[in-house]
Design brief:
Length: 430
């Protein structure tokens, strides 16, 4: 949510930020609606004052026994009361329109975000690892002999339709091991608090984390109104909605492993092979609630948390800063971490780490009390994948594949796999 006062003070800067995102100027529309709203509020207040003045005069007329004046004033007060109520209703309607307009406008990009139209204009900022060399043509994850039978798309389609998968046997265990490895690393080494959060949330939680009203089609809603979370960013971030925190409580750093659900609206024909883009998937999420002065450093910290997981797993990756045209609606700055997937001979996103500034905090009224006193201020919120479990499974399987159809697994998973670090060509852990 944008600060209307900031738009009033510097409409040109607001429009310039939108232009960097490739959006049309909106300050004139916003300010016209804001002016109409404020004028109606002022008119209602003036009419209320007149009503109050006339109401006092009624008592004086009655005390004098002037029945004619008493009746005239009483009729005038009733008329003014109806006028005030109508004005107040109009003011509320204009206020709702303004709030809705502001809620649909994307966040302002940070100054250091590169300008660009799409993913081709993203800028690489880091690269790690040596790409594996194969003496054979590497396969995609679902084609590897030791994986194929345990990654069952046919049964999933029978149960649920397209873009679902049933994992079985050793592959299901490796998938679970990856999630446990991620959570344990975040808790034991990265100082995040583990949270077991709901995956059904109310409208307010989706709105507060900028998923509504603009992106409702991207998520699933139950018949009784709950939303299935697109990521646990939603419940973790919204956990501080309406709160006024002590500054000493910041930063709050959380992590959760949950199922996630996305309708993938508008993605027809994209990544239909394998389990890259699914309606249901698992992710380990990181969320931080911080003091505004900590925001940029916290994003770098979270980026390193995600990168460190891939380094422990020995998965080559690169990190890019997203350009203005590729950045998400609520983000001020986003770093995408992309794991190397040999089967496609490319890097694929496995984590996005974003800072939203106070954009989400304004929507959900999350503040903190400065330690030195003064008015409460909005916190800053950040979120990042740490990591997408299914995509991490893909990277592990494809980078570790052997010519005979087996897969060498990372040493980091040994504690979670009973020390067995090979997926045999017939799908067993050995």
């Amino acid at each position: 949510m944008h600060d209307i006062r900031a738009i009033r003070e510097n409409p040109a800067a607001f429009d310039a930020a939108l232009a960097r995102r490739g959006e049309s100027a909106l300050s004139s529309d916003v300010l016209a609606l804001d002016e109409a709203r404020r004028a109606k509020i002022q008119a209602a207040e003036e009419a209320q004052a007149e009503q109050n003045k006339a109401a006092k005069a009624i008592g004086a007329a009655k005390a004098k026994g002037d029945n004619e004046e008493f009746e005239r004033l009483r009729a005038a007060v009733a008329e003014k009361k109806a006028e005030v109520a109508a004005m107040q209703t109009e003011a509320k309607e204009l206020d709702a329109k303004l709030t809705d307009m502001l809620a649909r406008i994307p966040n302002n990009p940070a100054e250091d975000v590169p300008e660009g139209a799409d993913e081709d204009d993203n800028v690489e900022v880091n690269k790690w690892g040596t790409l594996p060399e194969f003496t054979f043509a590497p396969k995609e994850h679902f084609e590897i002999a030791g994986v194929a039978a345990a990654m069952d798309f046919e049964t999933a389609a029978k149960i649920s339709g397209s873009r679902f998968v049933v994992l079985k046997g050793a592959v299901a265990r490796i998938h679970r091991a990856l999630a446990q490895f991620m959570i344990d690393t975040h808790v034991d080494e990265n100082d995040l608090m583990e949270v077991n959060s709901p995956v059904l949330v109310r409208d307010e939680a989706m709105y507060g984390t900028d998923k509504l009203p603009k992106f409702g089609d991207d998520s699933y809603q139950t018949t009784n109104g709950w939303w299935l979370v697109p990521t646990s960013e939603v419940p973790l971030t919204y956990s501080v909605a309406g709160d006024t925190l002590d500054e000493a409580a910041l930063p709050i750093r959380m992590t959760a492993h949950t199922l996630c659900f996305r309708s993938e609206a508008g993605s027809a024909g994209k990544d239909t092979s394998g389990m890259l883009r699914q309606h249901q998937f698992e992710k380990v999420e990181m969320v931080s609630i911080v003091h505004p002065s900590q925001s940029d450093d916290e994003q770098k910290r979270m980026q390193r948390c995600a990168e460190g997981l891939l380094e422990k797993l020995g998965i080559p990756y690169r990190t890019v800063i997203l350009c203005t045209g590729d950045m998400g609606f609520g983000a001020r700055r986003t770093f995408d971490i992309e794991a190397w997937v040999p089967g496609q001979n490319t890097y694929r996103e496995i984590s996005s780490v974003s800072t939203t500034g106070d954009f989400q905090a304004r929507r959900m009224n999350a503040r903190f009390k400065p330690a030195e006193g003064g008015k409460p201020e909005f916190v800053h919120t950040l979120n990042g994948s740490g990591l997408a479990v299914g995509r991490c499974l893909i990277a592990v399987l494809e980078n570790g594949q052997q010519e005979d159809g087996s897969v060498k697994l990372p040493e980091a998973l040994a504690p979670y796999l009973g020390g067995k670090l090979t997926l045999s060509a017939d799908g067993k852990l050995v």
